[in-house]
Design goal:
The protein is mainly α. It has seven helices and six strands; from the N terminus they run H-H-H-E-E-E-H-E-E-H-E-H-H.
Length: about 220
């Protein structure tokens, strides 16, 4: 295993690593969702909440796959987060990342206007913001990688031209595509069905790997 992987496995899911600053971050996340749920009850539009949960569910799936890669290769996941954290949940997933992804989908949703036919630079608005937000997220990841907070081990997943495009497509653009798919469904049943599948897959994967097979990632 790489040194980053070994370090990321230290204190994994250890509650003694929890730091006080995680509490106000949790409060901010809860406040945002409380406000969105309150507004949704008044308007009947739950898309902001669904956008937040969809993006987080997609990240949950990605992080689960990343953990599987670490276990199956016995070397490294595509990305690891060995740096200081209030709680490391998986080798590439910590509590700070979790809070960020819980909010990112809601932020993306509020970038969209109510006008469905609006275009920006001749691109449908919903796809313009999918591309722009994904590109911004990749930029942040590159900065974290440069600072040693996010470690990339493999040559195809790095700051090279090909690597950046791969991170853009698999790491973020698919997340926002999933949001677009959910919020453009006409019925709540269809929206919740898609959301259910997004969460069911990583839940089953983690129950199988962590609960039954006893893997550690």
């Amino acid at each position: 295993m790489t040194q980053a992987t070994i370090k990321a496995l230290e204190g994994l899911r250890d509650p003694s690593t929890i730091k006080w600053y995680a509490i106000p971050l949790l409060a901010i996340v809860l406040y945002v969702y409380a406000r969105e749920i309150k507004e949704a009850k008044q308007t009947g539009n739950w898309d902001a909440v669904l956008a937040g949960l969809t993006l987080f569910g997609m990240d949950f799936f990605n992080e689960t796959c990343n953990g599987w890669i670490m276990h199956l290769t016995r070397r490294s996941a595509l990305w690891t987060t060995p740096g200081d954290t209030a709680l490391r949940v998986m080798v590439g997933w910590n509590i700070e990342i979790i809070f960020m992804f819980l909010l990112a989908g809601i932020i993306y949703y509020h970038c969209l206007s109510e006008e469905k036919t609006l275009t920006i630079l001749k691109i449908p608005e919903i796809w313009f913001w999918s591309i722009a937000t994904s590109a911004f997220c990749v930029l942040v990841e590159c900065l974290l990688n440069a600072g040693g907070q996010l470690v990339w081990e493999y040559s195809f997943w790095n700051r090279s031209f090909f690597g950046v495009w791969l991170i853009f497509l698999l790491g973020y653009f698919t997340f926002f595509c999933a949001i677009n798919l959910v919020i453009t469904r006409k019925t709540m049943r269809a929206k919740l069905s898609i959301l259910g599948v997004i969460y069911a897959v990583p839940v089953i994967m983690n129950v199988l790997a962590l609960g039954i097979l006893g893997w550690n990632y």
